[in-house]
Fold:
Amino acid sequence: MARYDFDMITIGAGSGGVASSRRAGSYGARVAIIEELRIGGTCVLRGCVPKKLLVYGAQFADAFEDAAGFGWTVEPPKFDWPFLIAAKNKELDRLEQIYVNMLRNSKVEMIDGRGIVVDPHTVEVAGRRYTAENILVATGGHPTVPDIPGIEHVISSNEALDLPTLPRRVIIVGGGYIAVEFAGIFRGFGSEVVEIIRADELLRGFDDDVRVALGEEMRGRGIELHTRTQIARIDKDARGEFTVQTAGGHEIAGDVVMYATGRGPNSKGLGLPEVGVAMGQNGAIKVDEWQRTSVPSIYAVGDVTDRINLTPVAIGEGRAIAETLFNNNPMTFDHDNVPSAVFSNPPIGAVGLTEAEARQQHGEVDIYCARFRPMKNTLSGRNERIFMKLVVDAKTERVLGCHMLGPDAPEIIQGLAIAVKCGASKRMFDQTVGIHPSAAEEFVTMREKFVRPPQKEAAE
Structure:
């Protein structure tokens, strides 16, 4: 008889948990997956997919406006927010069923409820205990908000995806990718948008030139940005309207206040510290290169480890565990040069090192930049410009980073990510023939090194 009920129990049926479980099941492992909400997790149900659908919807405003410059006469368009939300929810239901079917086809047993780790080989769900040789924690993350007066009045990105009506005035607190994406969504649908951030620029962690360029373009679209601003309290009046009071004494009124100031790992209440799993200060599960925790039989992937919180990373980590444990194919996931995108308006694509990171790690670097008005905008009359940047190691000529702000940036950067992963040199970029006319060709035609003007010294 088998020593355990399962070869692996997965807690959390998001992208990472499902990927690992179904692959392990396809290799003949006895696998169970535990989920207390819906199959699909943050990306499919509360993140990447529904948000991107709303981004697509908001982009039609630009298309209607730009069409006139190309000879089209477009009647004043009307937008139906409840219709879009209903269509989005129908698509999410379809995707959830696809995930369920994939698990069933891999003979993975699905268990409804909250899984709690009792010991290194036992998980309890609603009073029933299940044993497994290996336990995988893939519980993802959740939005976090600060403890300030009136914080109970705010919504997170979760609620923003299901608002019953489109708000006329939206206040977004935060400068990360979720905040700038929703700022673009709401502005595209016609809402007045104010975005409040503590830093000097948006998107901490991205290349500084891209951060500045995005701020300029968002302001050009009518989004009001308040930088270096702290929130003191949030008040709600009898009419249901909100007032955000800043630490500097300013008041900003809105119909909805959305906080997007960070996310935290979903690790609380899982019993992990009690069985010896080492945790970070913010609740992140500490893992080694094999995704193994300090307890050898317990693994973790995805946002609950709080490293690179991207869906494809969680999927890659989960698949590596399945290969290692159940296919006699030991492997680790490579966290270097992971490309990323921000579906702001305009969007961002990036892979590799920022200029600041490259200077810190490699010393002398060469910078190539291009900023230009795309061909489409010459007839549409839109003033937005594309920004592109290459970061190159001055000694080896290896391309260390590619960064872009502009239409189709994520699609373009995906291809360049292969080149960066392969260690391509600037010479190889130069020898590549561009596709003309396209915006992407600029990445292989940049020849002049950018010389940054010296910064003025601060007055004494």
The two ends are 79 Å apart (CA to CA). The first helix runs from residue 15 to 26. The domain at 6-142+264-326 is CATH 3.50.50.60 (FAD/NAD(P)-binding domain). The chain has three domains: 6-142+264-326, 151-261, 346-444.
